[in-house]
Amino acid sequence: MNFITKKAPIVNNSQRSFKRSFTLHFSLIVTSIVTVVLKALSNLDNPGELAVRAFFMILIGALVSVIVEVVYAYSEKDITKFKDYKGYVNPINTGILIALLLPSVTPIYVLILAVFVGVYAGKLVFGGYGFYIFNPVLVGVLFAQLSFGAQLAVFDTPLQLLKEALNGATVNFNVLDLFVGNYEAVAIGSTSVILLSIIFIYLLVSKVIDFRISGTFLISVLIISFGIGFINYYVSGDFSGVFDYVLVNMITGLTFFGAVFLISETVSSPTSRETKIVYAVVIAVLMMTVRVLGDNTEGLIFAILFGNMITPFINRTVQRSNKKTLIKTLVISFVFVLFTSIALGMILQGKVEEVYALVGGVL
Amino acid sequence: MLEFKDMIDRYGKVVDHVVIENDKLYEKFQYKTYEKAITTAEVRNVINDFGLNKISIDGIFTNLDFNANSKFVVVNAMFTNEPFISTDYEFLIKHSAEMADGIELLSIAANAEKTIILVDKFMPEEALLELGKEIVEKDFEVITIDSKKVDARDYKIIKKLVNETLSINLIDNGVVYTDICAAKMVHDAVRLGIPVVTRKVAITGDALNINAVYETRVGTRFTELVEDLGGYTDITNMNLHIGSFLTGVQLDNDDFAITQSVDSINVAEFRGVDEDVCIKCGDCNDICPAGILPQNIMDAELRSVNSRIVDLNTEECVECGLCTYVCPSKINVLEWVRRAKRRVG
């Protein structure tokens, strides 16, 4: 008989972090399956081949990730973690996510390298799950994109078409196609927004992701894209394109996928409510800036990694949470988003110098 | 009297105990009693003289100390405690008249502007009816709390009531917060002249053969109660927990005496759930009723950054234990915050 004084016997709270990992795991598997099926049904060139490729990429991504983790655990002489399936959930999640973030034309060796770099350099060297500062998924994908840009190039994605449309080309988007994911996607995971919305709600309810991050991000993207579209078409006087601009920015590309699976990744995101809002707004603004001004049509990966980078800093700026700070944060964030949307719209139209001249000829 | 002895008290601290022998004579000594009309000073005197001021001390309950500052009396009439302790409402149904009178006495002692009774949403109707009958003509406000949601509702109600930042001791904010058993004891002391000689203790848990609610004399050794309950079952690793589950203390020894502040004791099998690594979800930061950031404090404590711990207002922690409760990784966050407090305190 012996008395242990470790912790109060609290058992009523059923929230467990491994349960959240399992929920994410389940959602990812569902997403993968539906994505592969949608690919097979799409009207792109060789839909069957694309679907098979996507399926094998997801499989290989998960497999390589698990192998890297197990080999590392062997080298550390501690494999107790891999005794049951619980230990495999997080490695598999990382592998699937990396595969989903690469286009279906990716050569297999690029995928394997991406997973290796993501899991080893992004996760294991920091100490594994719970300790990394950069989202390992994005580390792997960024490595692949920077090193193998030519192999990963995808043409005529909706966002690229949109850029051409802003430059004067006529592009017609089929709204139904956009909703079911029937378009040239920059990544396998950039799929039907209906599926992603269902999973978004499911993950929100099961508390895996946080609305203060994902929701703020989506709302910010909506406001910024609407502002840019509005200013652009205000100049030409024809407002029919605004809807297309907002829609393409919101539901294609990685916007929704990022909101569901990448931004709310808890370990590399801030912890208090004000900082979560700031973090989401920074990512949204940065992403739209890259999309509008940069060569890259898809700025999400850079943006989230930048957000991860400043997370320790913004965590350090808060001292306590109170209503006043929250309202202040919300107001400042909203003003910042509005300002960004107007500024980006102006820059895109080459109106910056006119504005400066209007202010008083600073330039 | 037998001897002086060093024993642990209910907090696990070693203090001087006087061991006395029961001569079983039970002579009754009648103290002065008071009739209906009573002044503030008289109630305060009785509470102090009879040692009633330290009855309920778990969580954010205050001592029954009154001063010119006292403005509000909040009485908790909930009998729930998770996960194994659940007290029936028999006590409340039987003594509702005394309790209502006790609450009135407390409100007189505090010169209260407002008296609030907190009741449980899932309270049996009979108990609610009995209590309601007694307080219907009195000027009390009744607030219902959903006890299934653990989110420091009482703290939030008091915060709204006071409308200022709460300090660690609610007395500084002019609030006297206690439970309904304390109200009954105040009634007994003032109207019947009985000091705190007995205490109602709920003894529960699967490490004991029988669970029971005892009315025990103050000073009884817990080991004697265990003997009376038929001893422990054969479980090797046990967890002895005194008081509320979120805020109580655990002892490594069962040889302590019941004092007037012990309201529940739980002896259960140790169910150590594995701690996972902190996933930095921020649930503890969201729920903290004091509005500080336990996760960030824990992080600072892990890295031993004193200035950061001071910056994060660690001293405002009321040690309610909600951060530990909500943690999905089952980390004992409160313990880390306590360590941080001690480091800079």
Shape of chain A: globular
Helix content of chain A: 55-70%
Alpha carbon gap, first and last residue of chain B: 40 Å
CATH architecture of the largest domain in chain B: 3-Layer(aba) Sandwich
Question: What is the number of strand segments of chain A?
Answer: 1
Amount of beta strand of chain B: 15-25%
How would you sum up the major sheet of chain B?
5 strands, mixed
Task: Bin the helical content of chain B.
Answer: 25-40%
Q: Largest sheet of chain A, described in full?
A: none
Rg of chain B:
21 Å
| Name of the level-1 CATH class of the largest domain in chain B | Alpha Beta
User: Under CATH, the topology of the largest domain in chain B is which?
Assistant: Rossmann fold
**Largest two-chain interface:** A-B, 40 and 58 residues
Describe this protein's structure:
The complex is a heterodimer of chains A (about 375) and B (about 350). Chain A has about 375 residues and is an all-alpha fold. Chain A has 15 helices and one strand; from the N terminus they run E-H-H-H-H-H-H-H-H-H-H-H-H-H-H-H. Chain A folds into two domains: about 15-145, no CATH class; about 160-360, no CATH class. In chain A, helix 8 (about 195-205) runs parallel beside helix 11 (about 255-260) and helix 12 (about 275-295) runs antiparallel to helix 13. The mean pLDDT of chain A is about 85. Chain B is α/β, with parallel strands linked by helices. Chain B contains twelve helices and eleven strands. In chain B, the strands form three sheets. Chain B has a five-stranded mixed beta sheet with strand order 8-7-11-9-10, with no helix packed on it. Chain B has a four-stranded parallel beta sheet with strand order 5-4-3-6, with helices on both faces. In chain B, strand 4 (about 115-120), helix 4 and strand 5 form a beta-alpha-beta unit. In chain B, about 45% of the residues are buried. At the A-B interface, strand 1 and helix 1 of A face strand 9, helix 8, helix 9 and helix 11 of B.
